[in-house]
């Protein structure tokens, strides 16, 4: 007899055909020997919202980098830099560009606290633009767009109080 959709879950899992597992015994973690619990210290679970994920502390310039990245993404010249270059279409890209970078990768690195210093963030932005200028001849729209984006980045940095020459 098959399991009916309206059958309660507890009846399904108590069915004779249910695999019982590998004989796991119920235990209380802090009562396990060698579990790393300190008997002299009372157990106090860290209380967080049930859906929250604890991320490492943000650096002092995180909000500045976030603002710069938001401005960069919104700039009209940012269209070629939003996502990684499709290496299935541009077969020789990785032969020329050794360290690819794009705005989505910068966003990922920022959200994962990979930028210890704002200079590291700016170096990735420069890398992204330099890669574009390296791969694309000066006459192409991509190269010209990278130059426009470079000027825009300089203005964005200045607007948030970061004095950095590209």
Structure report:
The chain is an all-alpha fold. It has a domain at 62-159: Bromodomain-like (Histone Acetyltransferase, Chain A). Helices cover 41% and strands 0% of the residues. The longest helix is centred in the C-terminal third of the chain and has 19 residues, at 141-159. The termini are far apart. Mean pLDDT is 81; it is low at 7-19.
Quick rundown:
This protein has six helices and no strands. With about 170 residues, the chain is an all-alpha fold.
Short key terms for the protein model shown above:
166 residues, Histone Acetyltransferase, Chain A, bromodomain, mainly alpha, 6 helices
CATH architecture of the domain at 62-159: Up-down Bundle
The CATH C-level name of the domain at 62-159 is Mainly Alpha
Class from helix and strand fractions: mainly alpha
- Terminal-residue CA separation: 72 Å
InterPro entries: Bromodomain, Bromodomain-like_sf, Bromodomain_CS, GCN5
Keywords: Acyltransferase, Bromodomain, Transferase
Domain Bromo: 73-143
Protein name: Acetyltransferase (GNAT) domain
């Amino acid at each position: 007899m098959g399991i009916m959709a309206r059958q309660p879950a507890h009846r399904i899992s108590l069915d004779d055909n249910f695999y019982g597992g590998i004989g796991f015994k119920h235990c209380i973690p802090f009562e396990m020997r060698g579990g790393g619990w300190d008997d002299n210290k009372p157990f106090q679970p860290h209380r967080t919202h049930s859906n929250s994920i604890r991320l490492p502390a943000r650096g002092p310039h995180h909000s500045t980098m976030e603002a710069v990245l938001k401005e960069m993404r919104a700039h009209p010249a940012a269209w070629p830099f939003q996502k990684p270059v499709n290496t299935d279409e541009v077969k020789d890209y990785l032969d020329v560009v050794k360290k690819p970078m794009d705005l989505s990768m910068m966003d990922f690195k920022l959200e994962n606290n990979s930028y210890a210093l704002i200079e590291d963030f700016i170096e990735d932005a420069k890398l992204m633009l330099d890669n574009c200028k390296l791969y694309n001849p000066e006459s192409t729209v991509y190269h010209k767009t990278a130059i426009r984006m470079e000027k825009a980045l300089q203005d964005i940095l200045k607007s948030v109080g970061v004095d950095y020459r590209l």
